[in-house]
Amino acid sequence: MAEAFRWAFIGTGTLAKKVIKEITATGRHAVVSAYSRSRERLEAFCRPYGTYAAESVEDAVSRPDVDGVYISVTNESHYEICRRCLELGKPVLLEKPFTIKAEETERLQALAKSKGLYLSEAMWTWYSDVPNKVLELVRSGRLGKVKDVYMSYSRYSIDYAPRVSDPLLGGGALLDIGIYPITYSYRLFGFPKGIHCNGDIVNGADYSDDIVLDYDGFKVRMDVSIVGTKGEVMIIDGSEGTLMNVDYHYGLPAAVKVGDDVEVIQGDRGYNKEFDAVAFEILEGLTESRFIPMRSTLDCMRILDECRRQMNLVYPFER
Ligand SMILES: NC(=O)c1ccc[n+]([C@@H]2O[C@H](COP(=O)([O-])OP(=O)(O)OC[C@H]3O[C@@H](n4cnc5c(N)ncnc54)[C@H](OP(=O)(O)O)[C@@H]3O)[C@@H](O)[C@H]2O)c1
Prior knowledge:
The chain contains nine helices and 14 strands. With 319 residues, it is α/β, with parallel strands linked by helices. Helix 1 (14-24) links the parallel strand 1 and strand 2. Helix 4 runs parallel beside helix 5 and helix 7 crosses helix 9 (294-311).
């Protein structure tokens, strides 16, 4: 990119602060406008970057110098804010979980298609090298026939931010972090033949979930928790070898053992890779991402819907 790609940011919280720092340092991205409701916090966010502190979503997004919109508001507002940005005719990168339910994802994708606009999920894992190399490895058959898969994402994180466990903000383990192993499993093995979910619901949000996805000849077992301490690990056991990956959703290196050989899969990761790729895709005129296609986002939302149905998790704003 010869000139910086110009973003409008909707949401200026913890994640947006990390992202703006990382992407603007490259010189390849500028955040020309931003909006969130608290004026004081918005201005504090904008000041160091010379970003325009907008009065509304419309004010931030409809400027002619905005090339794309990045939305990192809390989960319950994803759908409505994304819908408004698409109605304003702008390409959108929307944080995970894409929406609260699959039906909303379908509506947003249909709206983007009808307007010929780019829309993708900021599922940053799949912009990193290691997960894509793991996918190639599994497809290549080097691990042999897959026998068993275990994935945990279990960290004590309810004190991290209110949004993690507040049902009014669409919180809970499934939507906050369960989406990562579910998307990983979906990318490696496709849509499961069976979905089983047991959730431990506390104060209207699921704190811990046991999820099992059935595939031909093996199961993917998942421990997902915002009060657990098992950490984040993925183990794929095949007839010829085993892959082990700590912190897999961050795209950290994975170890592969086939026979007596141990190999480490490494590669680049981070928000810069994601934002560079999305900016290129928008400038290329694509309407969906090569890294995280619309089908993947929609199918994973359908898996989340089924898990929520089985654990009877209904958010207050859905009643
Ligand atoms: N990809 C990743 O690595 C990653 C990591 C963490 C989080 N996330 C996702 O990113 C999102 C944000 O997480 P976070 O940790 O940054 O949350 P956060 O710190 O609570 O920030 C949320 C931001 O959204 C704004 N906001 C909320 N509702 C809004 C509305 N209706 N209109 C305008 N602004 C609104 C809030 O400001 P006001 O209240 O002042 O409006 C705040 O600036 C979540 O969906 C989360 O799942 C992704």
